[in-house]
Design goal:
The chain has no helices and ten strands. The strands form two sheets. A six-stranded mixed β-sheet has the order 2-10-9-4-5-6, with no helix packed on it. Strands 1-3-8-7 form a four-stranded antiparallel β-sheet, with no helix packed on it. A hairpin with a 4-residue loop joins strand 7 and strand 8. The termini are far apart.
């Protein structure tokens, strides 16, 4: 079983940026970022499809234009660059496999106003 370890979260002021990383212990294929705010259900953020699928990426409308998902396949690492953060982006962020939703332990992102 591939292990997924997220990092890069923290406390940032509104308008700031953070870059999350997700290190996988083995090769990964289609991957996504999801998040869960306190008292709210898990919600999808962005997807990076299989590298052989031309690295197509998709974004939830509430992050499109502000967040960028990318990957370094040589390092088995997935990234999420988050810009123009708002308090509504406060959540635990998880990377997950698209095939079965298996995810890591998450990293906390807190955006202060």
């Amino acid at each position: 079983q591939v292990q997924l370890v997220e990092s890069g979260g923290g406390l940032v002021q509104a308008g700031g940026s953070l870059r999350l990383s997700c290190a996988a212990s083995g090769r990964t294929y289609a991957m996504k970022w999801v998040r869960q705010a306190p008292g709210k259900p898990l919600e999808w953020v962005a997807t990076s499809f299989h590298p052989l699928a031309h690295n197509i990426t998709t974004y939830a409308p509430y992050v499109k234009g502000r967040f960028t998902i990318s990957r370094d396949n040589a390092k088995n690492t997935l990234y999420l660059q988050m810009n123009s953060l708002t308090p509504d982006d406060t959540a635990i962020y998880y990377c997950a496999r698209l095939q079965d939703d298996y995810r890591g332990q998450g990293t906390q992102v807190t955006v202060s106003s």
